[in-house]
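In the design runs reported in the main text, the only information available to the sequence generator was the tokenized backbone. The following block is the verbatim input for one such run; it is reproduced so that readers can re-run the procedure and compare outputs position by position.
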């Protein structure tokens, strides 16, 4: 499953695509954590494709969030990887 991570409150200018290989839920006494590929994620900054648009996962699950959009704006592009490859 492909997801997009974008944190507008953090000043992100582009989203990052992540392949969700392993999704895990850990229940703690006070709350629950969601791990994606063994890393804790904040649903407020995760977008999944639904009905042809990239929608905020926290909002889809009914979690109250602020500072993020319901749909990932189309004018936001993917982060470009900066690969410094040396010639052999």
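Verbatim output:
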């Amino acid at each position: 499953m492909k997801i997009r991570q974008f944190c507008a409150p953090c000043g992100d200018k582009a989203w990052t695509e992540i392949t969700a290989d392993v999704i895990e839920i850990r229940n703690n006494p006070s709350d629950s954590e969601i791990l994606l590929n063994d890393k804790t994620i904040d649903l407020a900054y995760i977008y999944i494709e639904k009905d042809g648009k990239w929608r905020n996962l926290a909002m889809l699950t009914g979690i109250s969030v602020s500072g993020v959009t319901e749909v990932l704006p189309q004018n936001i592009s993917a982060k470009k990887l900066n690969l410094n490859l040396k010639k052999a």
